[in-house]
Amino acid sequence: MAENLGELRIISATVEDRPGVLFKVTSLIRRRGFNIETITVGGTEKEHTSRITISMKGNVAIVEQLVKQLSKVPEVIKIIELAPAESVYRELAIVKVLAQDPSKRSDLLNYISIFRAKVIDASKDTLVIEIVGNPTKINAFMDLMRGFGIAEMAKTGIVALSRGTKPQSERTAEKP
User: Fold this and answer.
1) What is the C-alpha to C-alpha distance for residues 38 and 42, in angstroms, rounded to an integer?
2) Which of 70, 87, 118, 170 is exposed most, by the fewest CB atoms within 10 A?
3) What is the pLDDT of residue 166?
4) Global pTM value
5) What residues contact residue 110 under an 8 Å CB cut-off, 6+ apart?
6) Cα gap 154→170, rounded to integer Å
7) How many Cβ atoms from other residues are within 10 Å of residue 122's Cβ?
8) Which stretches within the chain are classed as H helix?
């Protein structure tokens, strides 16, 4: 089932905040051969619950299969697919860029401004830049930074919420 074609799919699972839950989820994904792009985990507005956000590329059948399989994990409280067009989703990247040449540093600072990124650390040879946005924006920025030389980079993966008050998808998995 390791398909990497198709459009971006975002799956959001609310889970019990207990040791081993992330291991169960990732083990299931590995055993079933799903090819995910990113996975992030963090707390929610409710005590003792976490949100696992999974992004992947694939068709509807693959996403439905993953949602069905994840709904069988006892610690999964709720799971939905978030439609990218009806969601707010962001990724954070921190990148250390070579900036030894003063003439190139000016160009670099212009790109940082254009992308609404910010410099969070500087030395005489490098700038550490933080950028937040959708994956397309992050990738476009990284493509430009490669021209200057990337020394190091770290990305968080996607975090997402539905827009407004109505549910994103009626694909809420029913617990058995």
Assistant:
1) 14
2) 170
3) 58
4) 0.80
5) none
6) 34
7) 12
8) 21-32, 60-70, 102-114, 135-146
Beta strand ranges found along the chain (DSSP E): 8-16, 36-43, 49-57, 76-82, 87-98, 118-122, 126-133, 150-155, 159-162
> What's the pLDDT score for residue 32?
83
The pairing of beta strand 49-57 with beta strand 76-82: unpaired
Go through the domains of the chain in sequence order and give each one's CATH number: 8-82 (3.30.70.260), 88-159 (3.30.70.1150)
Q: What is the model's pLDDT at position 5? A: 61
pLDDT for 152? 97
CB 90 within 8 A of CB 10: no
Question: For residues 158 and 91, is the Cβ–Cβ distance under 8 A?
Answer: yes
Provide the angle, in degrees to the nearest 10, between the axes of the packed helices 102-114 and 135-146: 170
Instruction: Quickly tell me which residue has 């992330």 as its tokens.
Output: 22
